[in-house]
Design brief:
The chain is globular, with a radius of gyration of 25 Å. The protein contains 25 helices and 5 strands. Mean pLDDT is about 90; it is low at about 190-200. α7 runs antiparallel to α8, α13 (about 320-340) runs parallel beside α15 (about 365-385) and α23 (about 525-540) runs antiparallel to α24 (about 545-560). Helices cover about 70% and strands about 5% of the residues. It is mainly α and about 575 residues long. Among the domains are: about 5-175, 3-Layer(aba) Sandwich (Rossmann fold); about 525-584, no CATH class. The protein has a 5-stranded parallel sheet, with helices on both faces.
């Protein structure tokens, strides 16, 4: 008879999340039958429903279950709950359970391995005027951002909740798969937050523009909870189209794509009411980017084409005004970025970028031309036309330098570094990435810093600087856990997995690469998926499992059929040759 290891997962939440609690039970049951049992594991759900089988204070009985659990999942929405502790230490049962979980995580004798917090998206009208209960939830969320005392995840619908829950169950299953007891999750150290000033609140004395400006600033500093609250105030207090546009962009950047779509669609309705075609085009473009990030290339392209139809109609009626041509060039850039992910449309993407470059020249928009050249350079890199890509990106960098535009310089330097890396000019690539990182640090661009850190980790690893590569990867992960950026976190996990593989820690490498792979799958990024599969194949090859390595390579090549990428394909081909050599 097989011996199964039983792992208890406790779900803590206020009483207004009945659907999530029901789905938690279903997801755990399904995961057991589909995945966990294969490794002689079974996850046992625990929570309020199972607690009252003893004598004593009801909350104390619940706390005992938390202490006996291996994992704790905490879920909040718009309700905090009521005080349960007799001494008034905690103001709700869920808060008490969370803190008992953290205490258990720090207790080396307790079974607790990890504590995860979920926040369900709150309707904007509630977020803008939260009241006592929601205010307590928001304060708790801000405290997590401040202290990083636990990893938190946001979701907007039940399917997103189930996807995130499955990802954590998969990760925990992998950690136990070898038979060894996994290490406890480490509580991050508390760091002082940047720009920790009180944000403005809504009211007659604070205009919508000021709210939006402050929300943008807070988001740049990783203070997403406060930023979201101000965006909600700005969009519910009036009909400022810019407020909706900035809000949708913010939601897109933090990976809340469903919410971003909702706000962008509201922006479209408002723009049409006002006859503001420019804002309507901006909203369509944002929806196009969201669909691209979700891996929906067809609908992404259609949004950009719809926006282009509006612009072309304005040009037909009003003539080739500079504003029209500038917006058209921006849309062509983004349409090309979508089309380049489909093999049969790569040629069309290149032709579209050539048209965009010509438009930028006609309007004497040198900065815009540099952005288009940078996009063209990334496409040429994807195709493996490295010398041409290097020339185009060098031209873009020269324009940004002349324009003294640091954001563009940072992007061009990062893209040029990737070309140099593929050409084997690793020291020059490292220098370009370092220059880009310095610019992004100076500008306070967390997204740019994240990308540069993952790039530097990869390049330094190729140069043999393994400890520097490890530090870059860990810094990338820490940065993105703070800001809640799933794409950046995937890149950081991928980078750390590569470092561990090089350092001989194949078990750790597999864990981090698989986590990165799951993030990229959630993000619907085929190149990221393919790249992690290629590195997983290398880990399997190093482990002596050539058959499994070949399987991973085939899965990677399937992804590259849909989204070709010269660099990833070159790595795949190199590992395939090594596998064949091992088998001879």
């Amino acid at each position: 008879m097989e011996q199964f290891r039983a792992l208890k997962v406790f779900i803590a939440s206020p009483g207004n999340l009945k659907e999530e609690r029901q789905e938690f039970l279903k997801v755990v049951e399904r995961h057991n039958s589909d995945d966990a049992h294969e490794f002689q594991l079974t996850f046992i759900p625990r929570g309020l429903e199972f607690a009252f089988a003893g004598v004593g204070r009801p909350q104390a009985l619940i706390n005992d279950q938390v202490r006996e659990s291996d994992y704790l999942i905490v879920v909040f929405w718009n309700w905090w709950g009521q005080q349960t502790s007799e001494d008034g230490t905690y103001t709700s049962g869920t808060e008490e359970e969370f803190n008992v979980g953290l205490q258990s995580l720090e207790d080396k004798h307790a079974p607790m391995r990890d504590v995860i917090v979920f926040f369900k998206g709150v309707p904007d009208h509630q977020l803008s005027d939260p009241g006592e209960q929601l205010s307590k939830v928001l304060k708790f969320k801000k405290d997590l951002e401040e202290s990083r005392s636990a990893l938190y995840t946001e979701f907007d619908d039940i399917e997103e909740f189930k996807t995130q829950l499955r990802r954590h169950l998969n990760r925990w299953t992998r950690e136990w798969a070898s038979g060894a007891v996994p290490e406890k999750a480490k509580l991050p150290r508390v760091e002082k937050r940047e720009g920790a000033t009180s944000p403005p609140t809504g009211g007659a004395t604070v205009g919508t523009a000021a709210l939006v400006d402050e929300a943008v600033r807070l988001a740049e500093n990783g203070r997403n909870t406060e930023a979201e609250q101000l965006f909600a105030q700005a969009t519910t207090a009036g009909d400022d189209v810019r407020a909706f546009g900035e809000y949708a962009l913010f939601l897109r950047k933090i990976g809340r794509y469903s919410a971003a779509e909702s706000i962008a669609n509201q922006q479209i309705e408002l723009a049409r009411e006002k006859g503001d075609y420019g804002s309507e085009v901006d909203a369509l473009a944002n929806l196009g980017v969201v669909q691209r990030l979700r891996g929906k290339k067809g609908s992404s392209a259609e949004y950009f084409r719809s926006a282009l139809r509006i612009i072309n109609d304005r040009i037909d009626r009003e003539g080739e005004r500079e504003a029209h041509l500038t917006q058209k060039a921006y849309l062509l850039d983004n349409l090309a970025l979508t089309l380049r992910k489909t093999p049969e449309k790569v040629g069309e993407a290149k032709a579209i970028l050539d048209e965009a470059v010509a438009l930028r020249k006609r309007t004497n928009d040198e900065r815009g031309r540099a952005f288009t050249l940078r996009t063209l350079g990334t496409l040429l890199t994807q195709l493996g036309e490295l010398e041409q890509a290097k020339a185009v990106l060098t031209e873009a960098l020269g324009i940004f330098t002349t324009e003294e535009y640091d954001r563009g310089r940072a992007q061009a330097l990062a893209s040029l570094g990737e070309v140099l890396e593929l050409m084997g000019e690793l020291t020059d690539a490292e220098e370009r990435f370092e220059e880009a990182l310095a610019l992004n640090v100076r500008m306070g661009s967390r997204q740019g810093r994240s990308m540069n850190l993952s790039q530097l980790s990869r390049t330094r690893l190729s140069l043999g600087h393994i400890e520097e590569a490890r530090a870059d990867a860990l810094n990338c992960i820490a940065l993105n856990e703070t800001t809640g950026n799933p794409e950046g976190l995937a890149s950081g996990l991928h980078a750390l997995g590569r470092v561990l593989a090089t350092d001989g820690d194949l078990r750790g490498a597999t864990e981090y690469l698989q986590q990165a792979h799951e993030y990229f799958e959630d993000l619907k990024q085929p190149v990221g998926i393919a790249a992690t599969l290629v590195d997983l194949a290398e880990v399997q090859r190093l482990s002596g499992n050539s058959g499994e390595a070949s399987r991973y390579l085939q899965l990677a090549n399937d992804q590259l059929q849909a989204a070709p990428h010269f660099g990833v394909k070159s790595s795949s081909d190199r590992i395939a040759l090594l596998i064949r050599a091992d088998q001879q």
